[in-house]
Amino acid sequence: MFKYILKRLGYMLLALFVIVTVTFFLMRLAPGSPFASERNFPPAIEEKLNETYGLNNPWYIQYKDYLIDAATFNFGESMKYKARSTNDMIAESFPVSLTLGIEAMLIAIGMGVLLGVISALYHNKFPDYAATIIAVLGISVPSFILASVMQYFLAYKLDLFPTAGWNGFIYSILPAFAIALAHMGFIAKLTRSSMLEQSNSDYVKMARAKGLGKWKVVFKHSLRNALLPVVTYLGPLTAGVVTGSFIVEQIFAIPGLGKHFVQSITNRDYTVIMGTTVFYSIILLFTVFIVDILYSIIDPRIKLKGEKKS
Amino acid sequence: MAKKVIEVKDLHVHFKTFSGTVQAVRGVNFELFEGETLAIVGESGSGKSVTSNALMKLIPQPPGIYAAGEILLNGTDLIPLTDKEMSKIRGNDISMIFQDPMTSLNPTMKVGKQITEVILQHKTISRSEAKIKAIELLNKVGIPFPEKRYSQYPHEFSGGMRQRVVIAIALAADPKLLIADEPTTALDVTIQAQILELMKEIQETSKTSIIFITHDLGVVANVADRVAVMYAGQIVEYGTVNDIFYNPKHPYTWGLLGSMPDLDNEAEERLYTIPGTPPDLIHPPKGDAFAARNEFALAIDYEMEPPMFKVSDTHYAKTWLLHEQSPNIEMPHIVRKRIDSFLAKEAMHHD
Ligand SMILES: Nc1ncnc2c1ncn2[C@@H]1O[C@H](COP(=O)(O)OP(=O)(O)OP(=O)(O)O)[C@@H](O)[C@H]1O
Ligand SMILES: [Mg+2]
C-alpha cells in the first residue's frame, strides 16, 4: 500500500512537471503581453516593466526561474493588479469556488443517483421515462445556456433567487445547478444502466430468494455494486465541475478562482496563470488518486498494486 | 405416512414476448413428502428452471404469468400471495441453490454477512448468535477454517467452495424445502461429486425435502427417491428411482437414459441420442409434443395428447405406447445395455 502511494505520488509529480512546462510554452506562444492590453505605456516604461519581471531574459532563463517558482509555490505578484500576490488571490477566491464546487457535486451525485435508481426500479414505466427526459435534457443543454435561462426566469422574472454576486447560500443555488445538471444527467444514466444490469444478475435473484424485501435488495445488494462505475466517474466529474465553474462564475459574477483564472488568461497575467494552473492541476491529480483508493475500498476484488494479498 | 410438504397441481406458466406467448410450463403436477428428494430431469429448455422459480414465485412479472394451477405449501396456495407475503416464505420455508456459484454470491459483501442476513431476516435472534450459527453452517457444509472464512469475500473462494457457501445460505433458516437448480453443472467433475455427496449428507441428516434439478439422469440415481422427467413444459414420466431405471416406459426417458455419459468405455459404445430439437413452445404441436422426435410414434401421437397412464401405484407415464390397443414396443437394446452397465457401476461404487 505504502509503496503504491509513493509510486503514485511520483507519477503525479511527473504529470505536474509536464503540465507546468506545456503551460509555460503555450503562455509564451500566445500573442500579447501582460502590459499590452488597455493602457498605452511609453516604450521606456514597458521596457522597465519587462525587466522587473524578467521578461527580457532568454526563454531558458525564464523557464528555469519559472520552474523554481513553481516548485517552491512562490508565484510572485500579479502582473496586472499591483501589490496582489498570486497566493493571496488563490487563498481568497478558492474557498468560494470550493463551496460552489462541492454544492454542485452533491447535487450531481445525489440527484443523479436518485434519478437513476428510480428509473431502474420503475423500468419502462412512467417514472423511468420522466427521469430519462430530465437526464437527457441535463446532458444536452450547455451549462452557459442553462445559467442564462435560469438567471432570466428564476432570478430576473420570478425574483426567486438573486441574479448574481456572492453573498450567502442563496446566491450559490443557481450557479451550483448550472454546473451540476449535465453531470447529474450523466450520472443518472450511468446509475440506471448499471442498476438494471445488477438487477438481472444471479446474486440479486439469490437475494430475493433469501426472502429480503424489494428495498433491502436494492440498498444492501444491487446499489453498492451499481455505484462502482459512478465512483469511477468522480475523477472526470471533478474536472468537469472545475471547468464548468470557469464559465458559470463569469456569468454569475462570482469572485471565485475560476473567474480569476479566466481573467488572468485574457490579461496575459503570467504569474497568476501559472499559480492557478499549478493549483488546479494538483487538485485534479489528487482527486483521481483518491478515487482510485476509494474504489479499492468499495470493491474488495480490486487490490492496489504493490499491496500484499491476504 | 410422511407429511406432504408441497403439492403442485396443473401449473401453467407463460411468458409474453414480442413473438408470442411462450408456454414454458404446461400443466405440471407433482407432490413431495417430508424428507424426500424429487429429481426433475429434462433437456435444456424443458421448463425445469421455470417450474422451480415458480415454486418460489420468482418468475419476473412481466413477462411471466402464472396462467393456471395451484402450488400448495402445507396446504396453502402460494399463487395468490403478495410479494410481501412470499418474502416470509422465501429463504425460510423454501430456499434455493442456483446453478452458477461464480455469480450467485454478492461480490462486495462478506460471505459471513450473506449467511447471517437470511438468519436475521427470518428468525428473532441476536447478531452474535446469528454469527455463531453461520460459522456452524460453514463448518457443516465442509468449509475449513470457518471463522476465518466468515469474514472473507466471495472472490477468495474457489467455485466448489462458493457452492458450499450457497448451500449454507440455503440451509440457514432450516427450510422445509430446498430447491437445487443444477447445483453441480457449473463445476468440474471431482467437485461435482463432492457437492453431490454433501447434498446426500444434508438429505440424510435433516428432514428437509429436496427438489433436485438436473439434465443428467446419471446424477440422479443415488440422490433421488423419485424422478420426474420433463419434456416441453410437461412431466412425461414420474416414478421412483427404481421405476425409472429398471422399468422406464416413455421413449423420451429411454433417450435420456441411453445418452447418459459414460466415462469408461465411450470409445466402443456409441451413445444413444434423441434426434431433433425440442418443439417451439409458442405454438406447441398438436398431439404428443414428443411425437416428431419419437422413432416409435403412433398415428394417434400426431392427433391427440396422451393422458398420464398408470403403470403402478408410484409410476406414471404420458405416452400412447401404454394404451392397451397399442403395439407392444420394448425399449431399444442399446439403451437397456447402457442402463445395465450404469447400474452395475453404481452398485460397485456402493461396496
Ligand atoms: N423470462 C423469459 N421470457 C421468455 N421466455 C422464457 C423466460 N424464461 C424462460 N423462458 C422460456 O421458458 C422455457 C423453459 O426454460 P427453462 O429455463 O425453465 O429451461 P430449463 O429446463 O431450466 O433449461 P436449462 O437446462 O437450460 O436450464 C424456454 O423455452 C425459455 O425460452
Ligand atoms: Mg435451467
TrEMBL record, chain A:
Pfam families: BPD_transp_1, BPD_transp_1_N. One of its GO terms (cellular component) is plasma membrane. It comes from the Bacteria. The chain crosses the membrane at residues 12-30, 104-122, 129-154, 166-188, 226-248, 278-298. Belongs to the binding-protein-dependent transport system permease family. PANTHER family: INNER MEMBRANE ABC TRANSPORTER, OLIGOPEPTIDE TRANSPORT SYSTEM PERMEASE PROTEIN OPPB. This is Oligopeptide transport system permease protein OppB. The lineage of its organism: Bacteria, Bacillati, Bacillota, Bacilli, Bacillales. The gene is oppB.
UniProtKB/TrEMBL annotation, chain B:
SMART domains: AAA. GO terms for cellular component: plasma membrane. One of its GO terms (molecular function) is ATP binding. PROSITE patterns: ABC_TRANSPORTER_1 (PS00211), ABC_TRANSPORTER_2 (PS50893). Residues 6-257 form the ABC transporter domain. Keywords: ATP-binding, Cell membrane, Membrane, Nucleotide-binding, Transport. Its main location: membrane. InterPro entries: AAA+_ATPase, ABC_Ni/Peptide_Import, ABC_transporter-like_ATP-bd, ABC_transporter-like_CS, Oligopep_ABC_C, P-loop_NTPase. It is found in: Cell membrane. One of its GO terms (biological process) is peptide transport. It holds the Pfam family ABC_tran. It is a peripheral membrane protein. Belongs to the ABC transporter superfamily. This is Oligopeptide transport ATP-binding protein OppD.
